[in-house]
Design a protein that fits this description.
The chain is mainly α. The protein has 40 helices and twelve strands. Among the domains are: about 425 residues, Up-down Bundle (Amino acid/polyamine transporter I), CATH 1.20.1740; about 140 residues, Rossmann fold (3-Layer(aba) Sandwich), CATH 3.40.50; about 170 residues, no CATH class. The strands form two sheets. Strands 5-4-3-6-7-12-11-8-9-10 form a ten-stranded mixed β-sheet, with helices on both faces. Strands 1-2 form a two-stranded antiparallel sheet. It is elongated, with a radius of gyration of 41 Å.
């Protein structure tokens, strides 16, 4: 609902349904607000074309309002219809957006900027919490919030103006699409090929195939130009050109590999263009017999002087370089015009003898078809011409120096391709319509009367060049590279054009290479190259990059073996084109909502075709150079992938990962579960992953590359604080898992109680078939000091797990760092804590991580802790702190180390479906546990020991599970010794009700007040089971005291029958004085099968 105090606004019968209305709001005090959002024109530099903003937004205006709106935008004056998205003229920060008090801001571009945006300041909108909470609470936040919201809402105009004023003061030089892109691309595309080789190409291929060659090359560059335009208009483009476009689309792996070779190719291209210029100068010196030393050294001398001059222009600043480019383009255009004028100037006998006859239909017809010679063919000629069509990225390479890259790159690049293509085709057709393929240059080679011409156009025009068929001639399209100089109206202008073409291309490459290289180094993908990221001066000029480019160019000029390196450089450029096309295709194929290019004239399949075409052209030009290019790119790709730079650019690769994962997850839902494919998919109650490293390690051991592992944490307490703490730690803890190479997910919930949180996790965790099927939980070692509610919650989790028909793995003797959680979190925030827990053999003195934490723990005054907190602290106080720390450290890392020769003892007492045997088997196929043998312990009868062994051995062999020994335990059900039973009774004594020693009334009252206590009746009813647990511990100590790990069938307590404390006492007595134990209970569904 729109609100306006002017009643006439809605009375227009011709009003469109969708339009922007100017809203007039009256204020009681009629004071001028501090800020007016419309005080400055809107800026679209990060989202759209500035010049096309009005065309694309299509704002409709009410009658009589257009003039008012224009005045509002241009002058920023306050009128009766001024837009007031908010008002901050009072101390309160309510925002007047729609005529009522609200903190909600209106849409504004400044909210969407990146931090550190050069085109404007990033502003922060009010958080959802601030809007959602009661307004009275927000007012109490006082000045800090007022200033933050005010700065985020009402000072955009000022901040943008200040930013622009500083930009103007600093003297930034920004180029428009003509000078920044069009001129550069035209100069780079028009090279010496236009003046020296094009006549030879059309002579070999003929007009027909020659035009096809030009159009085929143009097809490659045009498709690449369309892809470049699409990527460049999909968001704000910074400096870096091709590297920036590819890296932000495909990620740092592709961008980092192609960026380095692209920058190197541009640096070497400087040498190639300069040598081309030097060769032309040396030819002129040779004609006038004024060589300085010899041809090779003269090329080196002139090339060195030229590069120094070009470097001086570049270092002087982009403004001087742009002026030089404009002058060179002017010279080049005059040279091209000079050629076309020369074709219509009447020829003379000397030029006729060299094959130039002005426009002749017979010459056009004769030269229309191909006449390949000297082993040349269509593709070889195409390979020679194609480098002339490159250079389309010259404008994109200086994207950081453009006023509006989104508008300039598409417009300038595509127009440059069109103009240069027309020029190439025009020159090719014109020169092939005027000059014959072969001419002797002898004015006396005229036609003898009565001579048969045999269809020769030269013969029909009065000249006999027939001897060129039997001996080499020096003139004509096929023989003379200076045809354009001969045809032109004034020959020296063509030489000036050659100079202009080579120098402009060299200058463009000399600027492009450092710019691209600087952008690459700023991203710090190759850390050793970060030295070259620094910029100098008002335009952040990469002076260090200029020097490096100069050194590379000089090296190749002095080597002077450019014929060998030229094909590789051409392939480097083509590899860049291929990846740009593939980037466009990949971004479209990934269907990311963030792919919204303003440039619509592209097609994903055309881009893919362009990428394949570029790869094909690479092999056409030079197959071995293509292989070298691919090898270098692959090496750099692997290097960057291995280094894993910490960048996140929202690449299409990430989007495709998501699409593939989603498709795979959906496809998995159609696959029925089968016992052969069962794997433990664990939900591990680790809390914060770094708190219980041993629990995480053992779980990760049997789930790594095999099943799902989710580390879960439950936050209890005030919901608002819990959610805040949970959200703030999610990314950090998942990053910890990733950094420490733990293939696991982190999940957290906020709940009223620990049991409710676990119940939510058990029901809601996972996706489709990728759901947890096993609960991994640590044993509650402090149960004797915990409250009854805490014990009830813990046992309740086990009961809930069984109710959901999920297996459970309980870990005992697995240390954790609960008593120093605050200290641990503090060190984790500093990124120094716990690093020792995730690196093998990394516990030397002086290291940070757990060692540092434990040493620091030694200095803590533990007695300061509240006695209520944990009674285990008193235990710590009674121990030698250093000894305790060392034991804790060793225990927490015991499953990170490679287990030596030893045993995993499996006490498979109850058939739970096979999980008790499957988990230890999975452990033994891991590298760290492969030296451990499986020993099987199971119950049996005294008179059937051998038979029971054979039965068990047969069963395990059918399951294809190797074992070292089988032991049949026959005396499980005998009474334990008195010392063990006494220890058990002492353990449960504080939790017994002893109702038989009291009168009935008192006993009933105690039952009501302490229903969790163990009654005498219950203890008597489960006395045999209690005996069994105590006796079982004696047998475990007798047989498995030296085992590396014990896997034991977990006893099950009937729900509502066995009290919580009795059940906890059973679990405690089972694991007394033993190595680490996994108590396992499957859901009594088969997880093993002997069928194929």
């Amino acid at each position: 609902m729109s609100m306006n105090n002017s009643p006439n606004v809605f009375l227009d019968p011709n009003a469109n349904r969708f339009q922007v209305n100017i809203i007039n709001e009256s204020h009681d005090n009629n004071e001028t607000s501090q800020e007016d959002v419309g005080s400055d024109p809107p800026h679209y530099e990060e989202t759209s074309f500035t010049d096309e903003a009005h065309n694309r937004l299509r704002i409709s205006y009410r009658p009589g309002k257009r003039e008012l709106y224009d005045n509002f935008l241009q002058n920023g004056e306050k009128t009766e219809a001024s837009l007031h998205p908010y008002d901050t003229h009072t101390k309160m920060y309510y925002l007047q957006t729609f005529g009522h008090n609200t903190v909600d801001p209106v849409p504004k571009i400044d909210y969407y900027r990146n931090t550190g945006s050069v085109s404007g300041n990033k502003l922060s909108r009010p958080s959802l919490l601030e809007i959602h909470e009661q307004l009275a609470k927000n007012i109490a936040v006082s000045t800090g919030s007022v200033e933050r919201v005010a700065n985020g809402e009402s000072t955009a105009g000022d901040e943008t103006a200040v930013s622009k004023e500083e930009e103007n003061k600093a003297g930034f030089v920004k180029f428009g699409w003509v000078k920044g892109v069009l001129v550069r691309c035209m100069l780079n595309i028009w090279g010496v090929m236009l003046f020296i080789r094009l006549s030879w190409i059309v002579g070999q291929a003929g007009i027909g195939l020659g035009v096809i060659i030009i159009l085929l090359a143009t097809m490659v560059t045009s498709i690449t130009g369309l892809s470049t335009s699409a990527i460049a208009t999909n968001g704000f483009v910074r400096g870096g050109g091709a590297y920036y476009l590819i890296s932000r689309s495909l990620g740092p792996e592709f961008g980092g590999s192609i960026g380095l070779i692209f920058a190197f190719a541009n640096a070497v291209a400087v040498a190639m263009y300069v040598v081309g210029f030097a060769e032309t100068v040396v030819e002129l010196l040779k004609e006038s017999d004024t060589l300085m030393v010899d041809e090779s050294n003269d090329i080196r001398i002139i090339g060195t002087i030229t590069v120094v001059c070009l470097l001086s222009i570049s270092v002087a600043g982009m403004e001087w370089e742009a002026k030089a480019q404009v002058i060179l383009l002017f010279v080049l255009l005059i040279a091209i015009a000079n050629f076309f004028i020369g074709t219509v100037i009447p020829t003379n006998n000397e030029k006729k003898a060299r094959g130039f006859f002005n426009y002749q239909g017979s010459i056009f017809a004769e030269n229309f078809g191909p006449d390949f010679r000297s082993g040349e063919g269509f593709f070889s000629v195409f390979a020679i011409f194609f480098p002339a069509a490159t250079g389309i990225l010259a404008g994109a390479n200086i994207s950081g120096d453009l006023k509006d890259p989104q508008s300039a790159i598409p417009r300038g690049t595509m127009l440059a391709i069109l103009i240069t293509t027309v020029a190439y085709i025009g020159v090719a057709i014109c020169v092939a319509s005027c000059v014959v393929r072969d001419a002797t240059g002898n004015i006396n080679d005229t036609v003898v009367p009565g001579m048969s011409c045999n269809g020769s156009s030269a013969c029909s025009l009065g000249y006999d060049f027939s001897r060129c068929a039997s001996q080499p001639c020096d003139y004509g399209l096929m023989n003379n590279f200076q045809v354009m100089s001969m045809v032109s109206g004034f020959g020296p202008l063509i030489t000036a054009g050659i100079f202009s073409a080579t120098l402009s291309s060299a200058l463009a490459s000399l600027v492009s290479a450092p710019k691209v290289f600087q952008a690459l180094c700023k991203d710090n993908i190759y850390k050793a190259l970060h030295f070259f990221a620094k910029g100098y001066g008002k335009n952040n000029e990469p002076i260090r990059g200029y020097v490096l480019t100069f050194v590379i160019a000089m090296a190749f000029i002095l080597i002077a073996e450019l014929n060998t390196i030229a094909p590789i450089i051409s392939n480097f450029f083509l590899a860049s084109y291929a990846l740009i096309n593939f980037s466009c295709f990949h971004a479209s194929y990934a269907k990311s909502p963030g792919w919204r290019p303003a440039f619509r004239y592209y097609n994903m399949w055309v881009s893919l075709f362009g990428a394949l075409l570029c790869c094909g052209v690479m092999f056409v030009i030079n197959w071995w150079a293509a292989l070298i290019t691919y090898a270098i790119e692959l090496f750099l790709y692997i290097y960057v992938t291995y280094k894993k730079p910490e960048v996140n650019w929202g690449s299409s690769t990430q989007a495709l990962y998501y699409i593939n994962a989603l498709d795979s997850a959906l496809a998995l839902t159609t696959v029925e579960d089968h016992v052969k494919n069962f794997r433990p998919q664990c939900i591990a109650l680790t809390g914060a992953p770094m708190i219980r490293p041993a629990l995480l390690d053992i779980t990760h051991t049997f789930t790594k590359n095999n099943g799902l592992c989710i580390c879960c944490e439950v936050y209890t307490g005030p919901r608002k604080l819990c959610v805040k703490e949970m959200n703030s730690g999610m990314a950090k803890k998942q990053a910890w898992l990733t950094k420490n190479k733990r293939k696991a997910f982190y999940a957290a919930v906020a709940a009223d109680s620990f049991r409710d949180g676990v119940k939510s996790l058990l029901q809601a965790s996972g996706l489709g078939r990728m759901k947890p099927n096993t609960l991994v939980i640590g044993f509650k070692k402090d149960w004797r000091n915990a409250t009854a509610m805490q014990v009830e919650n813990y046992v309740g989790i086990i009961q809930d797990d069984f109710s959901f028909f999920l297996p459970i793995v309980m870990c005992y003797q697995f240390p954790y760092f609960s008593q120093h959680t605050e200290e641990l979190e503090k060190l984790e925030q500093e990124r120094l804590a716990l690093e020792a827990t995730i690196k093998e053999n990394d516990f030397e003195e002086g290291k940070s991580g757990i060692c540092g934490f434990l040493r620091k723990a030694g200095t803590l005054n533990i007695s300061k802790h509240e006695t209520k907190k944990e009674s285990t602290i008193n235990t710590v106080q009674s121990m030698h702190v250093g000894e305790f720390n060392q034991k804790l450290l060793e225990a927490s890392t015991q499953f990170k180390k490679k287990q030596g020769k030893g045993t995993i003892d499996i006490w498979w007492l109850f058939d739970d479906g096979g999980l008790t045997i499957l988990i230890p088997y999975i452990l033994t196929i891991r590298k760290k546990w492969k030296n451990c043998k499986l020993r099987i312990f199971t119950g049996g009868k005294v008179n059937r020991i051998e038979e029971e062994k054979l039965v068990m051995a047969s069963l395990l062999s059918k399951f294809r599970i190797k074992f070292a020994d089988i032991n049949i335990i026959c005396d499980i059900n005998i009474k334990p010794n008195k010392e063990s039973w006494k220890f058990f009774e002492e353990m449960i004594e504080p939790y017994r009700l002893h109702e038989s020693c009291k009168d009935i009334t008192t006993a009933e009252k105690l039952k009501r007040e302490t229903p969790w206590k163990i009654t005498d009746a219950e203890l008597e009813a489960f006395k045999e089971k209690s005996y069994r647990q105590v006796r079982l511990n004696e047998l475990l100590q007798e047989h498995s005291r030296a085992a590396n790990l014990i896997v034991l069938s977990l006893p099950v307590a009937r729900k509502g029958v066995v009290s919580d404390y009795l059940y906890m006492a059973w679990l405690e007595i089972l694991s007394k004085n033993l190595p680490p134990i996994l108590m396992v209970r499957g859901n009594h569904k088969n997880v093993l099968t002997f069928y194929s």
